[in-house]
Structure formats: C-alpha cells, structure tokens
Amino acid sequence: MSADLHRLAAGLFVIGFPGTAPDDDVKRLIDDGVAGVILFKRNVGTAAQTTELVRALKRHAGRPLLASVDQEGGRVARLRGAPFTSLPAMRELGKNRDLALMERVGRLLAFETRACGFDWDFAPVMDVDTNPKNPVIGDRSLHRDAAEVARLGVALSKGMEAGGVASCAKHFPGHGDTLKDSHLDLPSLPHAMERLQAVELVPFAAYAKAQLASVMTAHVIFEALDPKVPATMSKKAMTGLLRDRLRFGGVIVSDDLEMKAVADNFPIERAVVEGLDAGVDCFLVCHRASVQRAAIDALVSAVKTGRLQRSQLEQAHARVSELSRRFALSAEHRPPALGTEEHRRLAAGLDADSFVGRDPTEVMV
Asked: Of 85, 94, 158, 342, which shows the fewest CB atoms inside 10 Å?
C-alpha cells in the first residue's frame, strides 16, 4: 500500500535534471513513477542530441512519459539554432492580430518540438502586457489588450494541439502587471476582482472555454483572492476561480517550485501539500533530486496523516494520465523530421530577422 501511494504521488511531478544524458537520479525518479521530465538549455544541444536524450528517457521509462519544454519563441526558447526557427517575440507577432498566423505559429512550435520527441510545450504566455516595467513578461505577452491576448493565444494553442503537442496557458491568474520576477522574488498584485475579471482573467477564460490542455499557475499573491499565499497555493484561485468559475477541466500545473518566489518563502513540503489541496494537479520541480524526493514524500506523508485525502491525489493523477494518454509519444515513435517540406512551409517568413517590421501580409503562406 505504501509503495502504491508513493507511486501515485510521484505521478504528479514533472522534474528537471542536469546534463545532456540521463543521470542516476532522474532514472530512479522515473522508476518511481514521475509523470514527466522538463528539458532546459543545460540539457539540449543539437536537434539530434536532444532527440536522442528524449528517446533515452522514454526508453528507460518503458511507459508513457511526458517530455516537456519551454518553447515560446522570442527570448524564451530552449531549442535554438538551425534547423529550429528563430521566432520573434510574441509581442511582435501579436501586432498583426492575425488568427491564421498565430495558428500557424502554434503548428510550427508543435512540429519542431514534436520532431524532438516532446509532448508538452509550456506556451503560450497568456499574461496581458499591461506593465512596461514588468521584468519577466513584457514582450513574451501577445498584446496589451486582454481580448487580443485571448483571441491570439487560443488560436496559437489550437494550432499547437492540432500538431499533436499539449499547450499550456501561463501564468494564471496573470503575471503581466507585476513589478517583480517570481524567479527571484514573490510578487503581489493589489488589483480588485473587478479589474482581474476585466483584464487578467479574460485570456484564461477563453482558453478554458476552448477546452485546451493545461494551465500553469503564477507564483504571485493576488490580494483580492488570497493575501497570504501565492496563487499556486490558493484554493480560492485554483479551485474557486479556475475550476469552478472558469470551468477549466484540463491539467493545472505549477510553475517551478524551486523558483525563489516559493522556495525562499515556503518549505517545499508546505508548497506541494497546500498546492494539491488548492487544486493543482501536477508540480514542476526543475533542479534538485533531493527537493523532488522531498516533495513526493510530503504528499505521501500528508495522506498518511489525514492532511490530504488519497482521492485528491487520485483525481489529480487521473487528469495528468489523461494528458499523457492524449499526447505522450513512445520512444519508438518517429514523427516527421525537421527540414521537410511541411516544416519549411510552416516556417516560411516567420524567422525573427525577416518578420519584424514587415507588412503582415508578407509573412503569410
């Protein structure tokens, strides 16, 4: 029973690891049952090396394993250099207000990530570009108008999922107006609910209505919702707002719990227990195996002591498993290769150097 509970808890985590080959720690955690892995710049080199690394991880798992990456375009892109497309910032693309263009961008992102074996791309950013002093979102946002972010972000996400890769709207309930970077500090937003409903929540409501795959939490305190903990740990934000009010039915995944907004203010054990209780289904823990194991053990302990119900883990596990069923490819699957005619058609005119400053009609195929 204890081993079964441990595997159930492990299945709610996506983990990072060092290096360009699987080490013993990541192999053991895969053996324990983690849902997936996330790759960063530290893990990737050429397209061939990245593809082989993802295959090696999936071969070791011998089961569906979600391979994930942050491939937004612009300055947040882990896969860089030929044959990958160097996309401009989303702000530049969003200026066109062109749904067909954004759907093609989504299909391109899916093609390039899928070619390397990835199943889940943590994109697009659905934060609204309302604060020019924001140190972390800025040009990653599609637009300064919430309705445009909603339209364009849903189109991009639909394109990505049509291409076989799970999308992820981030960072709920909205990171666009903060003055701090949650990688480094714990931001707080004082906005009233009326403002949140009129601006920050608009893109996420559209994403939820479109029944897309996943939403990533923001490590931001929203004073109107919960003045003591970030949204990641807030039941009012995750269940009351995202599940109940917006009726989102997909996977809720936390931003990395080793970011300083959480790590410097809350022990990992508290973060995951309160996060799951709040309604988070899946947790990103992107760096240290010791922290990853502590997080898994914390959920096991919380069930044993009655702090959490086993059914809460089971419900979250069911959502993550459904995402894996829909999107996770096996190690043996060989998607279309980079550089094919389909790839060239999707990428035509979208590279950063040729796109910026051109008439929108010039970049359409």
From this structure: 342
Q: pLDDT confidence of 176, banded at 50, 70, 90?
A: confident
* Confidence category of residue 356, pLDDT binned at 50, 70, 90: low
Say how far apart CA 317 and CA 311 lie, in whole Å. 10
3-state helix, strand, coil in the chain (%, to 5): 45, 10, 45
Q: Where are the domains of the chain?
A: 2-363
Record the tokens describing residue 146, joined without a space.
Answer: 């919430």
Q: What is the mean pLDDT of residues 48-69?
A: 97
| Number of C-beta neighbours around residue 90 at 10 A | 29
d(CA 229, CA 351): 40
**Which CATH number among 3.40.250.10, 3.20.20.300, 1.20.1250.20, 1.10.530.10 corresponds to the domain 2-363?**
3.20.20.300
Catalytic residue IDs: 183, 255
For the beta carbon of residue 228, count every other beta carbon within 10 angstroms.
8
pLDDT: which is higher, 20 or 357: 20
- 3-state DSSP assignment of residue 171: strand
**Could you give the 3-state DSSP secondary structure of residue 10?**
helix
Average pLDDT, the chain: 93
The full length of the chain comes to 365
Q: Do the Cβ atoms of 296 and 9 come closer than 8 Å?
A: yes
